[in-house]
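User: Sequence recovery, please. Input:
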């Protein structure tokens, strides 16, 4: 996410299917990771299942499950990497556990940064609100129903 986008531009790029990436420099080369979308999480979960083999998920302790999460996630979010990494069938075959931990930690930071940016509410443009939040809705089937803000009356 080296380039600076407004929150809305970032959201629009993701909706349009564009990747939001970050370049990570390590002692073992340069990696580019992407912000995952829903389909990526589906693939990560499938990959975790493959890495588990025929062992039931509940047979893994928390640390083992986190290891599988890191491997499966890196397999999905690393979009460019050094040539030696491309030779691996999976990140699980990387002999440098410190590198795996560093890449995964930096992926988590990238994910959180993008998520916070697109989750930040924009300025209130008033759309979807009536002038009187307590105004009763017409004479139709919803007559007598009012819109009450969750914050009203709680102070």
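Assistant: Recovered sequence (155 residues):
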């Amino acid at each position: 996410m080296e380039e600076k986008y407004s929150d809305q531009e970032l959201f629009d790029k993701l909706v349009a299917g564009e990747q939001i990436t970050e370049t990570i420099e390590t002692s073992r080369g340069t990696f580019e990771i992407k912000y995952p979308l829903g389909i990526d999480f589906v693939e990560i979960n499938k990959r975790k299942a493959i890495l588990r083999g025929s062992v039931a998920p509940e047979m893994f302790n928390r640390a083992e499950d986190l290891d599988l999460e890191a491997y499966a996630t890196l397999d999905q979010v690393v979009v460019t990497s050094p040539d030696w990494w491309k030779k691996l069938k999976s990140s699980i075959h990387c002999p440098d556990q410190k590198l795996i931990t560093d890449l995964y930690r930096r992926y988590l930071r990238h994910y959180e940064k993008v998520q916070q940016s697109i989750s930040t509410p924009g300025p209130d443009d008033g759309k979807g609100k009536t002038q009187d939040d307590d105004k009763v809705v017409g004479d139709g089937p919803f007559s007598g129903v009012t819109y009450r803000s969750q914050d009203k009356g709680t102070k």
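The mean pLDDT is 83.
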